[in-house]
Amino acid sequence: MQDAYTVLTPGDMRRLEERAFALGVPSLLLMEHAALAVVDALEKALGGDCGDKSVLFLCGTGNNGGDGLAAARLFLMRGGQPTVWLYGEPKTEDAKTNLKWLNEMHVPILNLGLPGEDRLPFRGGGAGRHYDAYVDALLGTGFRGKPEGLLERMMLVPRHDFDFSPPFPPVIAVDIPSGIDGKTGETPGAFVRADVTVTLSHPKPGLYLTKEREAVGKIVVADIGLWDLMPRSSGLLLPDGLELTCEVLTPGALKRLSRRPVNAHKGNCGRVLIYAGSLGMAGAAAMAAQAAVTAGAGLTTVACEREIIPILQTLVPNAMCVDIAEAVKAPPAYDVLAVGCGLGQSEGIWENIGKLYDPQKPAVWDADALNLLVKHPIQLGKNTVVTPHIGEAARLLGTDTEAVLRDRLAAARSLTEKYGCAAVLKSDVTVICAGTDRGPAYDLNAIGTPALAKGGSGDALTGMLAALLTGEDPPLQAAALACLWHGMAGLVGEEIYGQRELTTRQLIDCLHAAEQWGRGERPAPKNY
User: Fold this and answer.
1) Is the peptide bond preceding residue 167 cis, with omega within 30 degrees of 0?
2) C-alpha 425 chain-centroid distance
3) How far apart (Å, rounded) are the C-alpha atoms in residues 500 and 481?
4) What is the Cα–Cα distance from 71 to 334, expressed in whole angstroms?
5) Contact 393, 415 (CB under 8 A)
6) Which end of the chain has fewer CB atoms surrounding its CB within 10 Å, N or C?
């Protein structure tokens, strides 16, 4: 698996395919590769054996439907029993060719001519029987609008089997679940709820930006033979003519964590200064400091109120502590500053941040530091990373959460432009953004778990990011790795401790296992 995949819009993919066709790549070959990837995912979802399994293939009239028709043929060749339900007659030559082959192989084809409510082959829109799985090949990534009539009814058929007791039959979507916009993720009407989405050649932004993320299921990126033609940039957001690059990380990217030379010592492994904590919120400082230590910071110092120093010395014995009153007079030497976790929002705290912060050095601003930034908006250094969740981002941008959620890419970009820094917009899919001379660059992290949805998780991310910023990676890359590592540790922790039970300290304890997973030294968690 690659370390990262370039995210491309449906328009990007059309241009990419046109380049391939111009170079003589047969379109029918690409369809065959796509179908093979779909059947591989289908076979895995069926427990590793297609033999005597009954699967309903829902196929549209375009090349997405053609992929489904080809997949039905390959499924038959592996011993399966496919049934194809066509929305209408195929419109593309490759889809027509695959339909002809299926007819020659006597595969049951449900094609009742022109779409119409009175033409449903199943009463009430239900399948009328139990299928072992479904393949959704109705609509491709280029479809926009609201599905209606027979098309809408067909999209809802897979869920009718859910009247049965679990385990429910798996649903495999080709490229994107039908009804989800490939570019924006919007769902103006009915949509298919998939368990696995086999996205072709490159992941599409809608898979990550949709509010219906559970409907996407597990994303499998299928190589259909276009990697050598990968474009440099994407057409996601180009309102001002700038280029844009966007990648989504995979666990393999964690191999980028540098190995240390044999003569490394604490002085050259990075000095992190954390201004965090207050009475009643000492735990936030402790979690950030422990994460920084565990993620590899050579020396970690916590600047805090004197009264919580005994607490932190007990909770994080590897970290040094200094009274904030003394720290602002003579700031400890540091390579990276992290501020905000559990601080409070008094004016005195803002003044202290100003005395510690050096915009020429890497820094992480989180939590209460962001709330203070709302009250005192300033341009931060290009080496600074802000790490707001959706609500904090809305306050920083002077808008509401719905506006942020409606376009997280644009929101992250606005944060970088307004505050002159890199941004980590935390959510179920975290958007990491930094400006470049050619335009905005994005990384997406979609690896994580609801086990991280509790107080302390963000503090751990702050400490991890501060530790990684002590290295040579620029803010965008360091932030992306920190988010990936954090999410992978969450998955490992969920498997060991449970989704509800995982604590932040246990999360931090799972960082090594997550790194081993990324390096291929241990298997992925079963919940991945």
Assistant:
1) yes
2) 12
3) 25
4) 57
5) yes
6) N
Please report the DSSP string for 84-149 in residue order.
EEESS---SHHHHHHHHHHHHTT--EE--SS--GGG-SSGGGS-SS--SEEEEES--TT--S---H
Q: Are 368 and 345 in contact (CB under 8 A)?
A: yes
Contacts of 434 (CB under 8 A, 6+ apart): 382, 416, 422, 423, 440, 441, 474, 475, 476, 479
Give the whole-angstrom CA distance, residue 395 versus residue 87.
46
Q: pLDDT tens, 140-180? A: 998 888 999 888 888 988 876 445 556 779 999 999 999 99
Which two tokens mark 505?
């300290």
Is the predicted pLDDT of residue 305 greater than 90, yes or no?
A: yes
* Interatomic CA distance for residues 286 and 475, integer angstroms: 24
Tell me whether residue 94 is exposed, middle or buried, using C-beta atoms within 10 angstroms of its C-beta: 0 to 12, 13 to 18, 19 or more.
buried
Scan for tokens 């209408």, then name that residue.
88
∠ CA(399), CA(401), CA(406), 5° rounding? 100
Report the relative pairing of strands 439-445 and 430-436 from DSSP bridges.
antiparallel
pLDDT in tens, 262-282: 999 998 899 999 999 999 999
**Can you point out the beta strands (E) in 430-503?**
430-436, 439-445
Max CA distance (Å), the chain: 84
Alpha carbon of residue 495 to chain centroid? 19
| The pTM of the whole model exceeds 0.90 | yes
Question: Can you tell me the distance from the alpha carbon of 29 to that of 225, in angstroms, rounded to the nearest whole number?
Answer: 9
**In angstroms, rounded to a whole number, what is the distance separating the alpha carbons of residues 335 and 379?**
20
Q: Which amino acid is at 516?
A: Q
Is residue 343 a contact partner of residue 275, using CB atoms and an 8 Å limit? Answer: yes
For residue 393, give the 3-state DSSP assignment: helix
Give per-residue pLDDT as tens, 197-230: 999 999 999 999 999 999 999 999 999 988 666 5
Q: What is the pLDDT of residue 131?
A: 87
- Distance, in Å, from the CA atom of 8 to the CA atom of 14, rounded to the nearest integer, reads 10
Taking only the tens place, the pLDDT of each residue in 38-84 is 999 999 999 999 998 999 999 999 999 999 999 999 999 999 999 99
> Quick check: 195 pLDDT over 90?
yes
| Strand locations in 390-484 (E) | 422-425, 430-436, 439-445
CA dihedral 218, 219, 223, 226 (to 10 degrees): 170
Query: Could you tell me if 61 and 140 are in contact, meaning their C-beta atoms sit under 8 angstroms apart?
Result: no
Q: What is the CA radius of gyration of the chain?
A: 26
Facing residues of 5 across strands? 248
Strand, helix or coil at 522? coil
pLDDT band at 255 (very low <50, low <70, confident <90, very high): very high
234: phi then psi, degrees, rounded to nearest 5: -115, 160
CA distance 226 to 19: 10
Question: Among residues 461, 493, 450, which one has the least CA distance to residue 276?
Answer: 461
- SS3 readout for 206-264: HHHHCCCHHHHCEEEEECCCCHHHCCCCECCCCCCCCCEEEEEECHHHHHHCCCCCCCC
Quickly tell me which residue has 């393949």 as its tokens.
135
